Amino acid sequence: MGDPRMPDSDPIAERSLQMQASPEFQRLRSRFMRFIVPLTVLFLAWYLAYVLIAGFAPDFFATRLGDSYITVGLLFGLAQFVSTFAITMLYSRWANRVYDRDAEPLREQMEHAAMVGGR
């Protein structure tokens, strides 16, 4: 009998649930979380710092650098964009080099199950 959450006993859905419970999938998910959670926390802390400084120390952000129109707040704001692009590039490189390679066998298994289940 299939999973009670799958009343029609769909073999592809059953295989998907089995795959999610597999040690290989759990390792892949764990590896993903170990990479993405620290980056997310770091970026959110950086963003929160920006917001808090803007809210509680506006004079600091209004500080002009030399005789120019460039302020500390402007540089912090631009650094937010730069850090967003840097994190995106870092994730993309990591996913292409590490994560996709490790996910490939699982993808192939699921595609095979879909082909066999579709007959």
From TrEMBL:
Organismal lineage: Bacteria, Bacillati, Actinomycetota, Actinomycetes, Micrococcales
Transmembrane segments: 35-57, 69-91
Alphabetical keyword list: Membrane, Transmembrane, Transmembrane helix
UniProt-listed InterPro entries: DUF485, MFS_trans_sf
Pfam families xrefs: DUF485
Organism the protein comes from: Agrococcus pavilionensis RW1
Protein name: Clumping factor B
Signal peptide: none
